[in-house]
Amino acid sequence: MPVDPDVLANMRRRQRSYWPDGHLHIGDSVPGKNGGVRPVKLFTFRFTSPSRAMIEAAASLYGGTVAPMTRGMDRWQVVTDADEIPVYLPRHPVSQWMELWDGPTACGGATGRRSSRSPGGPACARPNASCGAS
Q1: Nearest CA-CA partner of 131 in 110, 112, 105
Q2: CA–CA gap between residue 60 and residue 68 (Å, rounded)
Q3: What is the pLDDT of residues 41-73, one digit of tens each?
Q4: Which residue in 1, 16, 76, 120 is deepest, having the highest Cβ count within 10 Å?
């Protein structure tokens, strides 16, 4: 059973409303032929963010010079001096599912191609939940 397009559109709207604090890159872009840009690999890391304070914090931890960005949604960047950074990996696997919650109760999920609320699939633990699970 396909996912209802209205439900999927609502999930996409909610996902877009969560603005990221910044991004971590292992590459950059340089001027290319005919006025375009081409990708280049970095041997260190590049942090970008709309927050200058976050980029300054990254520069103080990993080295590098804070610079304004000329393209993209982020406004500030730093190409670090570090070729390694510590990364937190959660104990449990990270899911790419979009989930529908009613308070503390998960009412369903979808990948955009399939739904966990298909006939015979898992049902919401709260049958009268406002998310419409039955």
Answers
A1: 105
A2: 16
A3: 999 999 999 999 999 999 999 999 999 998 777
A4: 76
Strand partners, 127: none
Residue reference for tokens 């510590």: 86
CA atoms within 13 A on the CB side of 92: 2
Task: Supply the pLDDT for residue 58.
Answer: 95
d(CA 115, CA 3): 6
Length of the chain: 134
Which tens digits make up the pLDDT trace of 87-96? Answer: 877 777 666 5
Q: Which two tokens mark 120?
A: 């015979």
Distance CA 64, CA 88 (A): 22
